[in-house]
Design goal:
This protein is α+β, with helices and mostly antiparallel strands. It has 2 domains: 149 residues, no CATH class; 86 residues. The protein is built from 8 helices and 5 strands. The chain has a 5-stranded mixed β-sheet with strand order 1-2-3-4-5. α2 packs antiparallel against α3 and α3 packs antiparallel against α4. It binds zinc ion. The site of zinc ion (ZN) has 5 residues, from α2.
């Protein structure tokens, strides 16, 4: 790790893009280890490392797609709520659409790759640990794909919706609509997260830890709210 930028450390550089990790990511690692690492610490670390790698690949999807349409590409930062690729595609709908869609497409492509690996592992009689790991690998990519494709700004799906709407209306209006959906979606996530936290039956039905869902929902609500305020002036 070298360099320090707003509490982030650069861990490597590949294809001309620097990848940073924010300090809070390590706090999240420790908290999650306390919660879930007890039963099988090695598997936990493997899965957390895999999540890290998969999120980095997702962000590289955004960055390389942006570069391919002639946009500006900055660095990638990982923090507890995911990754951020600082990209600036040229101001036209098709460039934004491709830049944003390329991230979730990486996860979508990794699902069949995981299924093929799982089938191959089953055929050669790999250990239960390997099969469990590969099942998690498929689950992680499936979850990241579905979650990111929700049409709620600031999620990728919300930005994809924004790009599609932009073909038919001024950009300010497209941003307004996608961030309004984001505001509602984030609020629903907070509500389900809190319900799941107090009611274990609902909690078990949620795809992620209830409290984590509430925190993510609060973040989405906040980002959508900020963007909604800005876009109001331009519609
Ligand atoms: Zn993304």
């Amino acid at each position: 790790m070298t360099g320090n930028m707003d509490g982030s450390w650069r861990i490597f550089r590949a294809l001309g893009i620097d990848v940073y990790v924010h300090w809070s990511w390590f706090i999240a690692l420790m908290i999650f280890f306390q919660l879930f690492g007890g039963d099988n610490p090695l598997m936990f670390l493997f899965l957390f490392g895999t999540l890290f790698g998969v999120v980095v690949l997702h962000e590289y999807g955004h960055a390389l797609a942006c570069r391919s349409v002639g946009g500006r590409v900055g660095h990638i930062v990982l923090w507890p709520l995911g990754g951020i690729a600082f990209v600036q595609p040229p101001p036209r709908p098709s460039a934004l659409l491709w830049t944003i869609a390329a991230g979730p497409l990486v996860n979508l492509a990794l699902i069949p790759a995981g299924i093929v690996a799982l089938l191959a592992a089953g055929t050669v009689g790999a250990s239960d640990a390997v099969l469990t790991y590969l099942n998690w690998f498929i689950y992680i990519n499936g979850l990241l794909f579905v979650f990111n494709m929700m049409p709620a700004y600031p999620l990728d799906g919300g930005q994809i919706l924004q790009a599609i709407l932009w073909y038919f209306m001024p950009r300010g209006r497209a941003i307004y609509i996608s961030s309004a959906i984001g505001l509602v979606f984030g609020g629903v996530m907070v509500a389900f997260g809190l319900m799941g936290h107090t009611n274990p039956e609902i909690g078990r039905a949620l795809p992620i830890t209830p409290l984590w869902m509430a925190i993510l929902g609060a973040f989405i609500t906040w980002e959508a709210y900020k963007t909604l305020q800005v876009s109001r002036g331009s519609t």
